[in-house]
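Sorry to interrupt, but I need a hand with the structure work. Leave the record below and I will have a look:
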Amino acid sequence: MGILDKTNGSIVLEEFNCRLYKGMQLEELKQTDYYKAKYDSFRDVNTGYFWYGFNHCDWEGYQVRISICFFGDSLESMYIYTSDDRDAKTWDDWSEKKEMEVFERNNSFMRKLSGEKGKKKNSPYPQWSIAFEWGTLWSVYDPRSASSISGLSYKK
């Protein structure tokens, strides 16, 4: 899948000869092998922000999915999270215990991606993060939305 460049927060997708980074232009992304091979979805949230979703890549035992957030034509942030065939597919299959397993798996993935232990806390809800000069890697379980997600946020 990729490697985090801890000096600037870019994600290097070696298999696709691609680098995702803050400020990357949308047209540049669309020219990459990653976009051509893995693009899956587009979502306009009607605020000037657009999300591009991609099918999973396998990386060191994880199924990793990336959703990239653009403001206008410029990359702003990314959700980088794991999925597994055993994850709940319907509300009938969902439980908080299963979702906490997703949260812990995302934490483990982010620690491996960053090579850092990070900080975990449980208040006001379960979360993990590690700060760098360029931004933050984070993971959260949100009981209000009954979901877990992790990602990369750049400083402005």
